[in-house]
Design goal:
Structural class: alpha/beta
Helix content: 25-40%
Oligomer: single chain
Strand content: 5-15%
Number of domains: 1
Length: 391
């Protein structure tokens, strides 16, 4: 029998068998429909990359390249989890310290200078993934984003944020086309990857689904200040990522993030110091960069701050702007600053700013940020009682 299936041959075969012919047509349609649906489902999730800055790669032995694709992320994170397990136990004095094993994870040369000259400060433990801040400790950051939305309603946004819950709240309010998670701690990015997988699987639609999904996250070595023993792993619940009195909002924003997940065209998990962040801004989009309180002198020096400003300005075309949000530690006060790119320079404007007080833990004192030292704005209005928030 001739197996050459020209359009004429197909007609002759099925001219007396209309049901079979219809079945063939339906089969082709189903294959095409399923393939299209698969592509749509993949596109709905947006692209995802994990990146390590040069400043982090020089410490972490296994961060062998700058960028890992979505397909490569599970393997590299699994390697980090396995390698860090023993090291974190050593750091927290649960087992005997073994320098040779530590050097397989943290570059030996890193221990000749800060921050790895001693494990007694938070920074090396953060970089190593042995001291991790998953819980939302910013008070009402959603108010910050709501004000940005009202101040710049016509601008499409791309969003950059430190922290764990903050990026999800940010997108839920601003509807970001691109979401970049920024943190010095690779384990926070591990948590983000796991949570984004839950969103990709449409598993975060409502409170019951969120409560079922969060315990599936593999997180541990959660930072604590109660002198209780550090734990390598926990079975997480909403209590681990959001304070009790704010959990209603956390559920609502996670649910909104799920419902608007398809709006995000690109996700990036960026393991970096703030001043080492790499910005690839989308044309005709306004970058909004949420800093929490990481810009305080305690965490960011003047030189590092200026490097962050330079990196931001260099990634912007002349005539465009980027927004920065500073949020005080353990308080609801915040400030919004605009970096305006000139042809060969930039300037900082203070859009609004609350009085800043240090963390309520310990003795509180007023402070200024590096923004106040270079802003062109002399008497900005306050943010928290801005008239737009009353509308």
């Amino acid at each position: 029998m001739n197996t050459t299936y020209s359009k004429f041959r197909v007609t002759s075969i099925y001219q007396n068998k209309p049901i079979a012919f219809i079945a063939v047509i339906l089969s082709f349609w189903m294959l095409n429909h399923c393939a299209s649906a698969s592509v749509r489902e993949k596109n709905e999730a947006g692209t995802l990359n994990l990146t390590f800055s040069h400043g982090i790669r020089k410490h972490l032995v296994m961060a062998e390249k700058e960028t890992y694709t979505e397909e490569e992320i599970p393997l590299i994170l699994d390697r980090f989890r396995n390698a860090s397990s023993e090291v974190c136990k050593m750091v927290h004095k649960k087992i005997k310290y073994n320098s040779e094993k530590v050097y397989q994870y943290i570059n030996k040369d890193s221990f000749s200078a800060p921050p790895f000259k001693t494990w007694d400060t938070p920074l090396p433990k953060l970089i190593a993934g042995c001291w991790n801040f998953f819980k939302l400790n910013d008070i009402r950051p959603d108010i910050d984003f709501k004000l940005v939305s009202k101040l710049y309603p016509a601008h499409k946004k791309e969003c950059f944020s430190v922290g764990f819950m903050q990026p999800y709240i940010m997108h839920a309010v601003l509807g970001c086309e691109k979401v970049v998670m920024l943190d010095i701690d690779w384990r926070i990015m591990d948590g983000h990857y796991q949570l984004l997988t839950q969103f990709k699987n449409k598993a975060m639609t409502d409170k019951s689904m969120i409560d079922a999904s969060i315990p599936k996250l593999k997180i541990g070595w959660i930072a604590r200040f109660d002198n209780k023993p550090m734990e390598e792993s926990v079975v997480p619940a909403m209590d681990h990522i959001c304070f009790k009195h704010r959990q209603k909002e956390c559920y609502e924003y996670l649910s909104t993030f799920q419902n608007t997940f398809s709006l995000v065209k690109e996700f990036e998990l960026q393991v970096s110091h703030l001043h080492g962040s790499k910005f690839n801004f989308i044309k005709e989009r306004m970058p909004v960069i949420f800093l929490s309180n990481a810009i305080e002198d305690l965490y960011t020096s003047r030189d590092q701050f200026m490097e962050l400003m330079d990196r931001t300005a260099n990634a912007l075309p002349a005539g465009s702007s980027a927004l920065f949000i500073h949020h005080t530690a353990g308080r609801p006060q915040f400030g919004i600053y605009e970096l305006v790119k000139k042809v060969d320079s930039f300037e900082i404007l203070t859009i609004c700013k609350d009085p800043y007080m240090s963390s309520p833990v310990g003795e509180a004192y007023p402070y200024r940020t590096h923004f106040e030292k270079i802003t062109k704005t002399k008497n900005p209005p306050q943010c928290s009682n801005h008239p737009l928030l009353k509308e």
